[in-house]
Specification:
One of its GO terms (molecular function) is isomerase activity. The chain has helices spanning 30-40, 84-96, 156-169, 202-208, 213-218, 263-277, 345-367, 375-386; strands spanning 2-9, 18-24, 45-50, 53-54, 57-58, 67-73, 79-80, 107-110, 116-121, 141-146, 151-152, 182-189, 192-198, 228-233, 245-251, 256-259, 287-291, 297-304, 309-314, 316-324. By secondary structure, it is of the alpha+beta class. The chain folds into 3 domains: 2-145 and 319-324, Diaminopimelate Epimerase, Chain A, domain 1 (Roll); 151-298, Diaminopimelate Epimerase, Chain A, domain 1; 349-386. It has an 18-stranded mixed β-sheet that branches. A two-stranded antiparallel sheet has the order 4-5. Helix 7 runs antiparallel to helix 8 (375-386). The longest helix has 23 residues, at 345-367.
């Protein structure tokens, strides 16, 4: 059996946010990770290994730790550098299920190729209100990710052609009801493309955009981007829509037509909107962001300019805890905190040695039998015994 959790990330209520699977192992078996990721069919599955485990063995002096190795696999079987919502889901499992050594200290995640991430529980000293949320974000966890800075497209011809392609892909000019929605600006952010839209009613207009995914897949300019994010400032704040920005993210290149909630994209959106929502001298501190997918999800974003890091504040909800029935897998179970249910290699070697000793004594007993009349029968028994038939 193998314990797996399913968690909805960037939400404080079930059946919303971005679902991810979380699996805790003693070591990485890449072939097994691929199979599990395909079986769970979430974008993505995070696999955790505690730093206290070495060579597949668990140190006995400690059963919990705040340092973990983390790797991510997509349902298509490919490994991903890092995933925001799956990291949040992993932190939620470790804190809520008792795997963290100190719940008041941060978790340190060591990735394969994207550096280290830290996740802290957000201990709120006072009740968070819309008035003080800019200083005290309300959600349960704060994640520390690398900042993703955006760049303008310097080639004016390429920029114009990209905007024309986007208007077709987003169906902005084709539908009369979308005439008031226009592209205000486009920038690149690493492998992604950010598209600022000019809208009248932010949430309603953003939800009304119906992209043609086939154009995004086939267009020569658009298909080069990992994801295409559309975003807009919320100019009509009220009791129901207190967020500062709204976004949607499309990633047909990576097999996701629309991402439910993307932490990675918000590492750039926070920077893009920070100076635009505040002033050049005083950018807005925490930006309240909403991703208007079918599931919907929200988070707060803040740039730590001195460290070139972005802080993401979000919550998560455990939706499922289940056992995957596979054999010969080393894993940790919740009740015993990292106990190994299947035998380790040393235990298997001990059992083989014990079996040989038992065979030796049985052999000695049969051979030393005083009944000399049944020598042939005795020899036959010994032969059958050593072949494992008796």
């Amino acid at each position: 059996m193998l314990r797996i959790w399913t968690v909805d990330a960037f939400t404080h209520k079930p059946f919303a946010g971005n679902p991810a699977s979380v699996c805790i192992l003693t070591h990485y078996d890449e072939a097994l990770c691929v199979k599990i990721a395909r079986e769970m069919n979430h974008a993505e599955t995070a696999f955790l290994v505690p730093k206290i485990v070495t060579s597949g063995q668990l140190r006995q002096d400690s059963q919990r730790t705040n340092e973990w190795y983390i790797r991510y696999w997509s349902p298509r079987g490919s490994e991903v550098n890092y995933v925001g919502h799956a990291t949040l889901a992993s932190a939620h499992v470790l804190f809520s299920q008792g795997f963290a050594a100190d719940v008041n200290d941060g978790l340190l995640f060591r990735t394969k190729s994207s550096g280290n991430f830290q996740v802290f529980r957000n201990i709120k000293s006072e009740k968070v209100t819309p008035q003080n949320a800019d200083l005290n974000p309300p959600f349960d966890y704060i994640m520390d990710f690398p900042a993703v800075y955006y760049q303008s497209i310097s080639d004016e011809s390429k920029k114009i052609n990209t905007i024309k392609s986007l208007e077709k892909a987003l169906n902005l000019k084709q539908e009369p009801t979308k005439e008031h929605i226009s592209i205000q600006n486009i920038v690149t952010a690493g492998e992604d493309l950010l598209v600022e839209l000019n809208v009248k009613s932010c949430l309603e207009d953003m939800k009304s955009v119906k992209p043609d995914i086939s154009i995004m897949k086939q267009n020569e300019l658009l298909k080069t981007y990992r994801c295409i994010a559309i975003t807009s400032k919320n100019s009509n704040k009220n009791g129901k829509t207190s967020f500062d920005i709204v976004s949607r993210v499309f990633g047909p290149k990576i097999g996701i037509d629309e991402d439910a909630v993307s932490g990675k994209i918000h590492c750039c959106l926070g920077i893009y909107w920070g100076s635009r929502l505040g002033t050049a001298q005083a950018p807005k501190s925490w930006i309240h962001a909403y991703q208007a997918s079918n599931r919907g999800g929200e988070l707060y974003v803040k740039l730590d300019e001195k460290k070139n890091r972005v802080l993401l504040n979000g919550s998560a909800v455990t939706m499922m805890q289940c056992d995957l029935l596979v054999q010969n897998v080393f894993f940790f179970c919740n009740e015993a905190h990292f106990s190994q249910v299947f035998f380790s290699k040393k235990k298997i070697q001990f059992l083989k040695m014990y079996k040989c000793i038992i065979k030796f004594f049985i052999f000695k007993t049969i051979w030393s039998a005083k009944d000399q009349k049944n020598q042939k029968k005795k020899v036959c028994k010994l032969i059958l015994f050593f072949f494992g038939i008796v």
